[in-house]
Design goal:
It is a single chain. It is elongated and about 125 Å long. It is an alpha+beta fold and 696 residues long. It is built from 22 helices and 13 strands. β6 (160-161) and β7 (165-172) form a beta hairpin. α8 (205-238) runs parallel beside α10. It has three domains: 4-23 and 210-403 and 552-690, no CATH class; 34-42 and 52-88 and 158-203, Alpha-Beta Plaits (2-Layer Sandwich); 93-154 and 433-524, no CATH class. Strands 2, 3, 6, 7 and 8 form a five-stranded antiparallel beta sheet that branches.
């Protein structure tokens, strides 16, 4: 038993090293907070939208700038991850052939009968233009009467980035979820563009690569700083090298076990969980402080200190409840906490009594304690909560919790504005079959003629047959005869011989080429497509159309997360209050003050300078679990000196572990650090009010 702590550490350390390659760390913070519905919408929009697009622009609108783009194109095509590269706006050969084959179906048909005079006037006008023109004027012998019109054709040959230069558009086979491949492609693209000054590029996966790199660096700094600070703090506090050594081993073992179990349940563990994991160990160390300062390590048996057990049980229970929450990040953090706290408690209670650690033997002072009035503290807390409720707003922007990459956001906005993406609202249409999806598109088109999408290039069978029937009822053969007769009299050669005759061969066999901009995809037994409608074209709520605005979807998602978090918080509070009542009975207001007061102070201070976000809310749950521990410990005044000393050191440890998170530039980590730090300081005020302040 004497070497049990070391054996546990070596065993877990060996298992961790052997499984190191299987431990996958995610730096994608946003995905961990998406609800199932939002995740599905996000994945569908990635497949349909421009998530695979890479945009590159060189400075200038001259031939020299264009030549640079073509050189970049050559380099990009050498990369395995690049699918297509396009500079010209001209449609591909496949698209041109598709349009030519289905021209009469895709075009708007002017169902008009022409008199002989109208035909003669039209042909005469064409003949006069040819005769008087200095330059060669081609004749549209397929539709000289202008019966068919196919959309608007842009005169622009190249995409342009406003006030910068021409744009190259490439696509990649890599998905946004493939972090390592995205990072590799990011580096390859920049190694190409860096050779050309004043060249800028953007792709949606740039956010993943750059934000992940920043978050990873920030998290590494936080973990390093926190670890060093805690090690120095423990060494100074304990003044016992043996106890210090075994404490570090115990906390390391609890963290390793938490990582191993978390990664066995989840495919990958978020890096925020690791940062949080280092901080959560500072909660479990208060078990050791209480045992140590109460001389429990002299017992040579499993330690059964009632207040420590109840303190552990309530904290463990709160995190256990939250481990079942349907929010991946919070479930991850809670599971990590459950395993870490439980393993640390067992190691401190089971292994440490056999280490022959010399106890400090703190003498209990016979002084009358000046306890605070819990009713006054509760009243003040309620007043602060009322004020906070009135003036504290909720931050509904989920992206505000992520790293704010302003430089990349500006580049993205610049490209979107130049390409006109900000002029449209995107609709996500879905149906059980392709045919029904096209029919749904056509229904929307009736109300919103400005719609752009797959329905401009392919029709449902019903619409296609209707158009085909309309064409068949028109006497194109008779029109052909009149045109040929009149054109010969005017002076034309036999150029209108086959005019309109090939319409009779038209069939509803529309098969889209792969490189068309708009697509239909299948996702979990449903078919989806994306459509664009001008922002000025209002969509009423009764149309039941999903506008693909990720900002609004994330805001709705955040409201759902908030409601879910509130429900689990209520369950946790019921558990905590039940535990408190079972332990303290009529004295419940006293330990309750250690929850109510710090929570109210945090919310009260937040109301003056910030908004309440979802990470603040989860951190408040952590604060409740910390406060309940201290409330239970301070119920017993018979060993006040030992308990106060243990709590002060535990608080100092927790403050150091969570306090460093305040320095994080990632708002999610900063939010947790702020709540715990302010909460710990509030609890420290209660400790001062509890009795005479003893020197640490």
């Amino acid at each position: 038993m004497k070497h049990l702590n070391i054996l546990i550490f070596l065993l877990l350390g060996t298992i961790t090293l052997l499984n190191l390659q299987n431990i996958k760390i995610s730096t994608n913070f946003m995905d961990a907070l998406f609800s199932k519905e939002s995740t599905e919408i996000y994945q569908i929009s990635q497949k349909l939208g421009s998530s695979s697009d890479i945009l590159i622009s060189t400075k200038g609108f001259d031939k020299k700038a264009l030549d640079k783009l073509y050189k970049i194109k050559e380099d990009l095509l050498k990369l395995k991850a690049i699918d297509t590269v396009k500079i010209s706006l001209l449609p591909s050969k496949e698209i041109r052939e598709y349009i030519a084959k289905n021209y009469y179906l895709l075009s708007d048909f002017k169902n008009k009968k022409f008199s002989d005079d109208e035909i003669k006037n039209k042909l005469q006008k064409i003949y006069n233009e040819i005769s008087t023109s200095v330059f060669y004027t081609p004749v549209d012998n397929s539709d000289p009467m202008g019966l068919f019109s196919f959309g608007k054709i842009s005169n622009e040959r190249y995409l342009k980035l406003k006030e910068h230069g021409y744009i190259l558009k490439a696509t990649t086979k890599i998905k946004l979820s493939q972090a390592s491949k995205s990072r590799e492609l990011y580096n390859q693209i920049h190694s190409i563009t860096d050779k050309y000054p004043n060249t800028i590029s953007f792709a949606p996966f740039y956010f993943l690569v750059e934000n992940s790199a920043y978050i990873q660096a920030d998290a590494t700094d936080i973990i390093t700083l926190s670890s060093i600070l805690l090690l120095v703090l423990y060494f100074i506090i304990l003044k016992n090298i043996k106890l210090f050594f075994h404490t570090v081993l115990a906390l390391s073992s609890s963290a390793m076990l938490a990582v191993l179990i978390s990664t066995s349940i989840y495919d990958e563990i978020n890096i925020i969980s690791l940062v949080f994991g280092i901080s959560i160990t500072t909660i479990s160390i208060d078990y050791m402080f209480h045992y140590y300062f109460h001389d429990e390590f002299e017992a040579k048996k499993f330690i059964k200190q009632k207040k420590v057990f109840f303190g552990f049980l309530t904290t463990f229970g709160v995190f256990l409840i939250f481990s079942f929450i349907d929010i991946k990040l919070f479930a991850e953090l809670s599971l990590f906490s459950v395993v870490s706290l439980a393993s640390a408690y067992i190691i401190f209670s089971l292994a440490f009594p056999y280490l022959n650690i010399k106890s400090p033997h703190i003498k209990q002072k016979n002084t009358k304690l000046q306890s605070f009035n819990p009713l006054i503290v509760t009243t003040i807390s309620i007043l602060m909560l009322i004020y906070s409720t009135l003036f504290l707003e909720f931050d509904s922007d989920l992206k505000s919790l992520d790293y704010q990459n302003t430089k990349l956001k500006d580049i993205s906005k610049k490209f979107n504005t130049s390409l006109g993406a900000d002029k449209y609202q995107r609709l996500l249409l879905s149906a059980s079959t392709k045919e029904k999806l096209l029919q749904k598109y056509e229904q929307v088109e009736q109300k919103h003629p400005s719609i752009k999408g797959i329905g401009n290039f392919i029709y449902s069978q019903n619409k296609c047959q209707d158009k085909l029937n309309t064409l068949k009822t028109y006497d194109f053969i008779q029109l052909n005869k009149k045109i040929n007769s009149i054109s010969t009299d005017i002076g034309f050669s036999n150029i209108f011989k086959n005019t309109y005759l090939n319409i009779q061969n038209t069939k509803c066999e529309m098969v889209l080429p792969d490189d068309i901009d708009f697509k239909i995809i299948k996702y979990q037994n449903k078919f989806y497509t994306l459509a664009l409608i001008e922002k000025d074209d209002k969509i009423s709520s009764d149309e039941n159309l999903l506008i693909l605005n990720m900002g609004e979807i994330l805001s709705k998602n955040l409201d759902e997360l908030k409601n879910t978090l509130l429900i689990f918080t209520i369950f946790s509070l019921i558990f905590v209050l039940g535990s408190l009542f079972g332990i303290s009975k009529t004295k419940i207001l006293y330990p309750l003050s250690y929850i109510l007061f710090p929570v109210s102070v945090v919310l009260f201070t937040l109301s003056f300078y910030s908004q309440l976000n979802i990470m603040h809310m989860f951190a408040l749950v952590i604060l409740i679990s910390i406060g309940i521990d201290y409330g239970i410990y301070m119920l017993d005044t018979s060993t006040h000196s030992q308990t106060t000393k243990a709590i002060r050191y535990a608080m100092l440890s927790t403050f150091a572990g969570f306090g460093v998170l305040i320095f994080s530039s990632v708002n999610s980590l900063h939010s947790i650090g702020y709540v715990i730090s302010v909460g710990i300081m509030s609890i420290f005020v209660l400790l001062i009010l509890k009795g005479k302040n003893e020197n640490i």
